[in-house]
Amino acid sequence: MENEISTRIANKNIPFSSNEDNYILLPQSQEAEQAVLGAIFAQSECLNKIIETLPNCMVFYRPAHQIIYDAILKLYDRN
Q1: How many CA atoms lie within 13 A of 15 on its CB side?
Q2: Residue 22 pLDDT > 70, yes or no?
């Protein structure tokens, strides 16, 4: 999984906040990001409200969470 994330970032499929060598340390909470994603999986009916507040994957700091949320948005757009 980590290799896939690195590849997607390197190919610029998922943008992220960084300088040339390191991630820029932005305000973040891994627990909050996990809670949002967990809420979507546990109660999919809350997705409409979440999308209003978090319109794209760039609101997540962790690249893995960006990829997961981006996939959720793409699936949501299909329906």
Answers
A1: 4
A2: no
Cβ neighbours of residue 24 closer than 8 Å, sequence gap 6 or more:
17, 18
pLDDT tens-digit series, residues 58-77: 999 999 999 999 999 999 99
pLDDT at 19 exceeding the cut of 90 = no
Q: Which two tokens stand for residue 64?
A: 């893995």
52, 78, 77, 50: which is closest to 65 by C-alpha?
Answer: 50
Residue 42 burial (CB count, 10 A):
9
Helices 30-42, 63-78: inter-axial angle, 10-degree rounding: 30
What would the pLDDT profile of 31-45 be if each residue is shown by its tens digit?
999 999 999 999 989
